[in-house]
């Protein structure tokens, strides 16, 4: 089973040293190796991971995730308006999504989607 992780360090030299230690540990202790997609990124550039864009200063939702969430909210509003589901049911469905976006920097997105003042 593939395992993914991000390691954030303060310099490129430290990143190279950590990567070397990780490769050695995986090889010697576990008989494993990293795949060819393993990379070192500048923290300003950020990296896509688990539906978020992570950089040195913040955690944001990826654009694809935002589009999917907006589409789902629009559909749920329509279903509530038609009376096919209740607003309570719609809120239950959105609970997981709201938890997902809460850990990212999404204040503006939440205000836009949920009409907060």
Number of domains: 2
In which order are the strands of the major sheet placed? 1-2-3
The percent of residues in helical segments reads 40-55%
- Topology pattern, helix = H, strand = E: HEEEHHH
Uncertain regions spanning at least 5 consecutive residues: none
Residue-averaged pLDDT, rounded?
Answer: 84
What fraction strand?
5-15%
The radius of gyration over CA amounts to: 20 Å
Characterize the largest beta sheet: strand count, sense, and whether it forms a barrel: 3 strands, antiparallel
Shape type:
elongated
- Distance between the terminal alpha carbons, to the nearest Å? 45 Å
Work out the helix count: 4
Number of strand segments:
3
Structural class call reads: mainly alpha
Secondary-structure topology with pairs:
Elements: H1 12-30, E1 47-49, E2 52-54, E3 59-61, H2 63-82, H3 87-102, H4 107-114
Antiparallel strand pairs: 1-2, 2-3
Mind explaining what this structure looks like?
With 117 residues, the chain is mostly helical. It has 2 domains: 1-42, no CATH class; 60-114, no CATH class. 54% of the residues lie in helices and 8% in strands. The chain has helices at residues 12-30, 63-82, 87-102, 107-114, and strands at 47-49, 52-54, 59-61. β1 (47-49) and β2 (52-54) form a beta hairpin. The mean pLDDT is 84.
